[in-house]
Description:
The complex is a heterodimer of chains A (239) and B (322). Chain A has 239 residues and is an alpha/beta fold.
Amino acid sequence: MIAAPYEEPAKSRMRVAASIAIDQAGFTVVDEPVRIALPADSKIQGSLLGDLQSLDGEGKRAFYYLRPGTDTAVPKWIGNLARASHAANAGEVYIVVTDYVDELVESCKDSGAGLLRLTEDSVFEMVVDYAETAPKSLSQALEARLTEARRRVEKKVEFLNTDIEARYSQSAGIIAAMEGDAADRYREQFESEYRNVDSWGSEMSRRLDRLAGRASAAEISEVEALIDAGPPSNEGSAA
Amino acid sequence: MTQPPDLLATSHQAKVDPARIRPNPDNPRRYFNEERLDLLRTSIQEIGVLVPLIVYADPDTPGDYVLMDGERRWRCAVDLGLETVPTNVIPAPEPLENLLRMFNIHNVREDWPLISVALSLREVMKISGETGEKRLSEMTGVTRSSVRRAKRLLSLPEREIDLIRDEAHLDRAQQVHREDLYLEIEAAESVLRSAVPTFAAKHTRPEVIRAFAAKAEAKTLRAVTDFRLLAKLSKAIENDDSAKEMIEYALDELVTDVSVTPQEVFDNFAAEGYRQQTLLKKTEVLRADLAGIESVDSLSPALVNELRHLLRMISDLLESQS
């Protein structure tokens, strides 16, 4: 049983429309998607699952990752799965969007993921055919730098969040004693700091996503400098 | 990421299939933006879940678990198709205890939408019977003014609450049914209801709130604060029976015609009245201050000069009227 957590409405609507599109395309929607193991030498955890799965007449499986937002690059975790899927020969990985930009098309080709546009009539328009993709690889050295850069973003986000939490905990007594809206304002400063860090982390992640498969050393250096600089200072910072 | 030590005192560790875990129904932060989880998804995919989730056995379904802490990590694990995740399994809490723990675990870092706080607060009030602002604030750690604002959201018709909830996961710029919009609407509706009884008798509260929210949906407002003009409008009709009738008519139009804005109603029917009411109040204050002056000799030349200037202005104004 896969538990059903809250899902943002745009994604739920996409899920319904994509199920219709799969059916329209002549495939069978898998009622209960199953986890398909990745090759043993895969360096990532997890399995191929997707938001939706389908089977064709010959039992070939496709995994659909629904993206209601506006990606400009394949998110790294889906890119990792797409690359692994080519090695596993377990089925085709598709990213499903309602609209796309050229950068996303190139990014899909680089990472080995297919790209489908879901039209308003609940029909799939093939933008990048999975079968025609071949994931590109960076040199080991550049790949290692990108991975290291990502780990630094994660650590920085975690460190900054821990710092915010610690300062907030220390201020709990002061905040509780504040009159009127002062407590909310003070608390909002902490929340604003947290949002700032969260947004920065997401932005750095997207920048790193864009470099997958085609980064130059100079481009990586540029992002590394941004990571070293950290989030922009927050004007509402609570001391 | 640290975990509350008191929760772990009686726990045991276990590897659990994330598909056997369900989200905590009492977690006030029920809304997740899809893309915001990408950084964490990649991290977990490449290095795993480092901090165990906190769960308790689902009393309704043996073999399943309910999440106490770690919803973001759990959701990522599900999306990534992980077979197991590390967990700390704690004893199942009582319903109120569960709710209060949710409030206390997911504190500042989670930046809950107010509607989310409000809905969980409603459960706390229902189970505990506690409705006092101060006590609710102490129990949940939510500031008193947030409790107050949350209760105002809960006073809205259920349909409007659903509209706010449906957009809670969106960035603020994308939201139409914003919490601050409804707080402004709620305040304006309350002021009008007490200041204009005929209006209150004619239109129900849900009708007025829906009509005002429809203006935001139709994008006829300049800002959500436009509704503050309605509070000024109620001031404008104080002591002015002649204005009342026109304003009642305008308020009817405001409710029945989505294109009529609070700004138009105020500008056309109440701006002058409001200006005069404000002037009247200022005049009363000045008069009271002047009455306290015992001798002109005690006044500075600058003040005397200003008062003379004011006297001339008032005389000219009154003469031009007569």
